[in-house]
Amino acid sequence: MGASGSLFMLKMNNNNFEGEIPFSLQTCTSLRNIDFGDNRFTGKIPPWIGSIAFLVSTLRLRSNFFVGHIPQQLCNLAYLHILDLAHNSFSGTIPNCLNNLTGLIILDYKIGNLSQLQTLDLSLNHLSGRIPQGLSSLTFLSNLNLSYNNFRGEIPLGNQLRALPDPSIYEGNPLLCGFPVSTNCSNDTSNPKDPNDNGDGNDKLWFCVSMALGFIVGFWGVCSTLIVKKSWRYAYFRWFDDIKDKAALAIAVKAATFQRKL
């Protein structure tokens, strides 16, 4: 296979191939379509795919066991129409493809180089960070699936993403907010507010619990002291009897005074 320099299409999907993508494919510089989907391939996407297969229009690696980051070299695939990496175990952020930068930028990345991209499926991976603002500039993008990852923050605004209003595109990313999902973004878009947050109710509940505990502790504290300390118990009952006698005397005096007035 490595000597097939004129090979235009490599379709190996729906088999049980395993192992890593063979290094010998580097000589297949005329490839236009690569489909390794639905197999048992492992390892990382080799970065040389982006350098030797720059004319590729379809790259389909879905439903395998690939791991690691999405290589920055995929940004060189300027003619790419379909990129399907779903159902793998990719992690990290979506790479920055602006001006062929080589690093991964967590807070500000764009994929503007893939201007011909029509289908992007990254679902069911472990990708994280924010969704690149550059997605909104992909004017040919008609199919998008970012579901079941760990994306966070506000979904980028832009005409192209506004034309894809299906919230299932972003399903399984609970930290995303903004159109078209139901969670609104707060001022801090990196930490969207949990719509089920009930802080005031919890405060009231803890206040009532603390009041009840305080009453119970105080009541039984006094009672246990009277039970243990005999002298205190006698003093308490004497004081209680004095209060009772004084109250009875005051009531009797008031009653006698009232009767005389009649």
From TrEMBL:
**What is its subcellular localisation?**
Membrane
Per the record, its GO cellular-component terms are: membrane
A UniProt-annotated Pfam family: LRR_1
Is Repeat among the key words of this record?
Answer: yes
GO MF annotations in UniProt? kinase activity
Membrane topology listed for this record: Single-pass type I membrane protein
List UniProt keywords, sorted A-Z. Answer: Glycoprotein, Kinase, Leucine-rich repeat, Membrane, Receptor, Repeat, Signal, Transferase, Transmembrane, Transmembrane helix
The protein here is known as: Putative LRR receptor-like serine/threonine-protein kinase
Q: Is the keyword Repeat in the record? A: yes
Q: Where are the transmembrane segments?
A: 204-228
